[in-house]
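# step 3/5: fold
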Amino acid sequence: MAMVNKNVSYKLLRTLARRANAASPLRCHQAQRATSNATTTVVSQAPKHIPTASPAGNDGDDIFDFSDTKVLFASVPTGKLLHSAATLSVAAVEPMVDLSLWVTNSRLMDVPLFKNAVMGAIKYTAYDHFVAGSDTVETGHTVRRLWDSGVRGMLDYGLEHAVDNESCDIAEKQLIKTAESTQSLPPSSVGFVAVKVTALCPVYLLRRLSDLLRWEHNNSSFKLPWKQQTLPIFSEISPFYHTLQQPAPLNAEEERDLELAHQRLVNVCEKGFESNVRIVIDAEDTSIQPAIDYFTYWASIKYNEKQRPLVYGTIQAYTKDADMRMALTKKAADKMGLPTGFKIVRGAYMSSERELANSLGVDSPIHDTIENTHNCYDRCAVFMLDEIATGPGGLILATHNLQTGKLAATKAREYGIGKDSGKLEFASLYGMADAMTFGLRNAGFGVSKYLPFGPVDQIMPYLLRRAEENKGMLSSSALDRELMMKELKRRMKAYFTDSENKVKRQANSIVN
C-alpha cells in the first residue's frame, strides 16, 4: 500500500492525467454502460453552493449525468481527489490486494517494527479512504463535510463481533455514545445509526437462538418459552441444514444473557430515537441470521410508528429466499398495521456460505450466478418501492451497482418518491461509488454514506473483509476511475490556463 502525501504537487497531477489518457480507451458514457459498479472518492470541504446537474444524462439517461465532471466533483478538493485516485488505482490491482491481505495476516505482524510500518501505511491509504474517523469527534468532521456536499451519514461503530457480556457492554456504551454524538451535528445530517446485533449479544448465543428458531419453524409442537412477539423469519426455502437435530433448550444462564441482550438493544434504540436518528440493523451469515431477524422484528414491533419506521432490518439479496422472506415479513406487518423498513444489500459471505453448504452436501443458499443476485435485488427493490408508493414504510437501497441505481431511481421518480418523502435513501460505503452518489444527489434523491469508524487496529477486520469482498468490483470500476482522471485533467488544464492568463495580464500591465 502506498502512502500519499496530502500536499500533492502538480507534477503528480500531470502524471495522473497522463495515465488517464493512456489507461483506457473508453469515454465516460461508454464506461457508464460497461461497468455496473461505481467506486470513487472521499468527500472533503465543500463549497457553500453545490451546482445542480441537468436532468438529462448521456445516451437518453434521465437519471445520471456524468458528462460534466466539474459539477459531479464540485465538492471534492483536488488533494482528496488525487488521494482517492491513487488509493483506488492500487486497490484495483488484485495481486496488490492479495499481497496486502497476505502481509496483514502473516506472522510478520508479530514483529512490532514491521507492524507499526504496515499500520502506518494502512492509516494513510485504505484507512483514510474507507474509514470516517477514529472516534465520534473525527467522524463528526466527516459528517459535516458530507452534509455540506448534500450527502448524509450512517454511523457505524466498527466492532464486528462480541464474545462475552463484558465486550457487549462496552459495545453498547459506544453505540449509545455514537447516537448521542449526532445531537451536536447539523439536524438531519445523520439519518441512521447502524447496529450489529453481534456486538450486543454474544455470538454463541445467537447460534443457539438460531438453532432453536429453525427447529421451532419445522416442528409446531416445539415451544420456546422465552420467545417474544416477532414477524416471520423464514420462508419454506430458507436454509435449515445448520440444525440437523433438536437443540437443547436455553439454560438459566443463557436466558439471562438473552435478557441482557434485549435490554442493550432497547437502550441503544431509545437513545437513537431521543437523538432523532433511526436504527438500521445489519445482517450476518445464515448460521446466525435467524436470531438477528428475531431481534430486529421484535424491536420493529416495539418501536415502529404508524407511518414512519424507526427500526430497519437488512435483506441480503444474494440469498435465494430473500424476496420471499421480505414479502412474508411485509405481509405480516401490514396485517398488524406496522410500518416496515428494509435495507437491501447484495451480501457479504458468499465464499463461506458456499463452502459450508458444500461440506454438508446441500445446495448453497446463495444464488448460483451474479445475474440471479442482481435480479433478486431488483425484485426486492421494486417490490418495496411499490409498497411505499401508496403506504407507510421505508427503504434503504445500499448498492454500488449503477444499473440498479438507475432502475430504482427511475421507478421512484415515476411514483414521485423523492428526497422530501423521507421514504427512500440510496446508500453506499464511504470511499466507494461516489460518482453514483453525486449523480443521484444531483437528480434529487436522498443519498447517504455508510461511515465505519474506530481506531486503526480495531477497524482492521472490517478493512480486510472489504478488501477481500470487493477485489473484483474495485478492479472493474473503470467508470469512476476514468471520471476522476477526467476531472483531474480538467483541473490541471484550468490551473495552467489561469496561470498563463495571469502572466499575460501582468505583462500587459507592465507594458501599459
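# step 4/5: annotate
The chain has two domains: 1-131+457-512, 132-398.
# step 5/5: archive (pending)
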